[in-house]
Amino acid sequence: MRILFATTANIGHFGPMTPFARACAAAGHEVRVAAPASFAETVTRAGLAHVPLAQPAPGEHGPIFARLPGLPRLEADRVVVNEVFAGIDARAALPTMVAAVEEFRPDLVVREFAEFSSFAVASKLGVPHVEVAIGLAEASAVACGMLDKATLDKLSCTDDGLLTAPLMTVVPRSMEPEPTDRPVHRFSYPVPSTTPPPPDVPGSGPLVYASFGTVAAVLPPFAGAYRDLVDVLSARRVRALVTVGAAGDTSLSTVDHVRVESFVPQQDVMPHVAAAIGHGGFGTTMNALAAGVPQVVVPLFSLDQFLNADAVTRSGAGVAVSTVPEVGDALDRVLSDPSYATAARRLADEMATLPPVSDSPEVFTRAAR
C-alpha cells in the first residue's frame, strides 16, 4: 500500500506523525512525507522519504503574525487557522500537493490538522484520508470550527470529512474532555527501551526539566519568557535543566543549579525528574505524562497549548498558570503535594496499556479500504 503523510514545517506537528510513518514503513508499506521544501532535512533525518511542497514567499507570514499580539487569543487563533494554515500555506502548497498525489497515487493520505492542502486534494480526488492528532481531539474540532467558508472556497473544498475521518492518537481517553463522534484509535506513547544516565546538574534539590519548545524563542512577544523562567528557577532550591531551542540563548543562567542547553532529548530526561515545566506543547506534555511526571503548564500562544493545560489540570497531574512569574509558586505546590505525582503515574499506567504504535498499520489499511 502507498501512504502519503502530509505535514507543515513544524517539528511539533511532524513529531507525533513520525512513529506512525515509521510503523507503516516497517510493515512494508511505501511511505512518503509531503512537507515544505525547507523541512527536507528534518524528514530525511527521521529516515523517511521527503516530497517537497512549495511554500509562501519569504515575508508573507510577517504581516499576519505582526497582528496577533494585539488580538484576543481566540481571534488570533482564528487568524492563524484561516490566514496561515488553511490560507497562504495551503494555497502555496496546493499545486505541488496535486502533483505529488497524481505521481505517487497513494491509497491513503495521512495528515495533521494544520496541513490543509492534503485534505483539499484528497477530497477532490477521492483518496481516503486519516488524521494523526497533534493534541487533544478537541483541538481539531475547535480549529475546524474556526474555518471560514471563504477560506475553504479558495482551496476548492468544503469541510465535509474533516471531522469524520479516523483519528490516530496517543492521548489517553481520560485526558479528553468528552467523547467524539469520529472514529478514534488510541495507541501507547512510544518510550525508549533504555534510560540514559541522569543529566549532570549540580546541587542537591529535586531535578526539574523546563522547556517552552522550539518556537517561543523566535517569537518577539515571548522573547523574555526564558529569561523569566531562569530567574524563577534560580531563586529555588531545585536542580533545573532548561532547553531553549536552536535560536535560544544558552548563556541565560548565572547559577550552577540551573543548566541551560539548546536541546536535550526529553525522553532521556523525563525518567529522572520530579517535575516538568512546559508551555502546553504536545511533545513536552505527552513525554511528561508517559513518564508519570507532574507538570506546571504555562500556555503561551496557540489553541492546543491552552487546551492541553486545561487537560493536565483536570486530570490532577499538574497545575496551569497564566504567566511565567507564577511558575515558581506552582512548582512549589507540585513538588510538595504528592497527589500530583500520583495522578501523573495513573495516566502513565493508562497510556502503557494501550496498543503499541506498531499495530497502527492495520488501522491504516482498513481506512484505505
Task: Write up what this structure looks like.
- With 369 residues, the protein is α/β, with parallel strands linked by helices.
- It has helices at 11-14, 18-26, 40-45, 61-67, 73-104, 117-125, 137-145, 149-154, 225-234, 266-269, 282-290, 303-315, 327-336, 338-352, 360-368; strands at 2-6, 30-36, 49-53, 108-111, 129-132, 167-169, 184-186, 207-211, 239-243, 258-261, 275-278, 295-297, 318-320.
- It has 2 domains: 2-188 and 355-368, Glycogen Phosphorylase B (Rossmann fold); 207-352, 3-Layer(aba) Sandwich (Rossmann fold).
- Helices cover 41% and strands 15% of the residues.
- α6 links the parallel β4 (108-111) and β5 (129-132).
- α5 (73-104) packs across α6.
- The longest helix is centred in the N-terminal third of the chain and has 32 residues, at 73-104.
- It starts with a strand and ends with a helix.
- The model has no long low-confidence stretch (mean pLDDT 94).
Count of separate structural domains = 2
Strand numbers in spatial order across the main sheet: 3-2-1-4-5-6-7
For the biggest sheet, the summary is: 7 strands, parallel
At the fourth level of CATH, the homologous superfamily of the largest domain is Glycogen Phosphorylase B
| Secondary-structure class | alpha/beta
CATH topology of the largest domain: Rossmann fold
What average pLDDT do the residues reach? 94
Low-confidence stretches: none
**For the CA atoms, what is the radius of gyration?**
20 Å
Shape: globular
